[in-house]
Task: inverse folding
């Protein structure tokens, strides 16, 4: 029995030394693991996707390899609705290796704005849930997570359709049409330029179309749009009250109809 | 007769001094190993002060059990203390590491470390220590039960 006890003692001592040395060196080697983030860039791709790009530099000078390095991003609006998710996986960063990765999060702007229409007209603070996970020495999973906010600028901030005004001057000279004016304005707070077409349809109180107008626009970021849209209105059908419908069509999204009543 | 009793007590005192010296050396070596390791772990201790307190509490309790085990060497209490020492390691590892998942809040970053695999190995090794202590106790009792050779 003494031989068995001695064998167990030796094996146990050897395994303890191995386990403690491994655990301590794994923790110690983490101080030589460097993670550097570049500046967050945002752009709109040719497929009308908003792309957030985060360059990441991973340097591992520790004793052990780092495996399954994963960056996960979830973008949510203020109500907690998920707008986009992105994952980047680096399978292995060996000892003494440096890896440069690019973490991308894409979302289709039209789908996102259809789900969360408030983002079209109001600025907001989007929430970014960032999670970094990796396996130290390819065996010990470590996860770090943080929440950051991202300002969102509305592309049609404060979209306003003003009161319809009609000018009776020149009435009868235009083949039964008179000229009306509808002022339309908005500010582009988004990080991308906005170009497209604005459609205006004017209806009388019997819901009969009395005039239309379309106007193209090109509004760069952080710029305002203000236009008095001239509409030729049918004198025969126009009434003292009615409503106008506004549609906005851009290469990225379509909005409408925005219904505004009028009274002359 | 008086001479034999005096000789016995002198022998017992020598044995006690030897055990005490052995216990001191073992305790010092164990603490020295902790001291050397703690130098390497200093960045971790700076980051998580509670981790250092927890490790120090473990080192103190383990050293006490180690020294007590050495002082009671050659008695059945030594085996009880060895079992207690191994069970203490199992309990400490499970409780102090929250069953293998440590969560930290570093300002706005939440860090979770899952070292269940290392913990499992450590618990298995501690259970091996319990088994060894039980074997030693059985061996001790069987040796004492054997009739003296005439």
Result:
């Amino acid at each position: 029995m003494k031989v068995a006890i001695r064998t167990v003692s030796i094996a146990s001592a050897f395994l303890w030394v191995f386990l403690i040395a491994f655990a301590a060196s794994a923790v110690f080697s983490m101080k030589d693991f460097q993670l550097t983030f570049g500046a967050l860039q945002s752009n709109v791709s040719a497929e009308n996707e908003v792309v957030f790009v985060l360059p990441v530099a991973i340097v591992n000078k520790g004793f052990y390899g780092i495996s399954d390095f994963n960056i996960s991003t979830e973008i949510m609006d203020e109500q907690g609705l998920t707008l986009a998710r992105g994952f980047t996986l680096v399978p292995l960063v060996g000892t003494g290796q440096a890896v440069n990765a690019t973490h991308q999060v894409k979302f289709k702007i039209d789908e996102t704005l259809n789900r969360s229409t408030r983002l079209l007209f109001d600025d907001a603070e989007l929430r970014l849930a960032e999670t970094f996970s990796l396996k130290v020495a390819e065996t010990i999973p470590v996860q770090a997570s943080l929440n950051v906010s991202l300002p969102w600028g509305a592309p049609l901030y404060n979209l306003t359709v003003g009161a319809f005004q009609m000018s009776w001057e020149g009435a009868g000279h235009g083949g039964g049409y008179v000229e009306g004016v509808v002022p339309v304005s908005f500010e582009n707070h988004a990080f991308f330029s906005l170009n497209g077409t604005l459609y205006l349809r004017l209806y009388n109180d019997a819901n009969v179309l009395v005039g239309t107008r379309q106007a193209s626009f090109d509004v760069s970021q952080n710029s305002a749009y203000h236009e008095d849209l001239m509409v030729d209105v049918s004198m025969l059908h126009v009434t003292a009250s009615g409503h106008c419908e506004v549609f906005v069509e851009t290469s990225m999204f379509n909005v409408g109809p925005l219904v505004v009543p009028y009274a002359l | 007769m008086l001479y034999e009793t005096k000789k016995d007590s002198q022998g017992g005192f020598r044995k006690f001094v030897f055990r005490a010296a052995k216990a001191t050396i073992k305790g010092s070596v164990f603490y020295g190993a902790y001291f050397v390791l703690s130098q390497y772990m200093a960045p971790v201790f700076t980051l998580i002060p509670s981790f250092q307190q927890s490790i120090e509490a473990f080192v103190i309790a383990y050293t006490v059990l180690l020294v007590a085990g050495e002082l009671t060497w050659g008695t059945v209490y030594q085996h009880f203390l060895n079992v207690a020492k191994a069970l203490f390691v199992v309990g400490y590892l499970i409780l102090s590491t929250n069953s293998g998942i440590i969560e930290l809040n570093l300002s706005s970053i939440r860090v979770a470390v899952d070292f269940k695999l290392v913990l499992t190995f450590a618990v298995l090794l501690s259970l091996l220590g319990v088994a060894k202590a039980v074997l030693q106790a059985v061996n001790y009792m069987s040796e004492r039960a054997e009739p003296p050779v005439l």
Remarks:
- Strands of chain B lie at 101-106, 109-114.
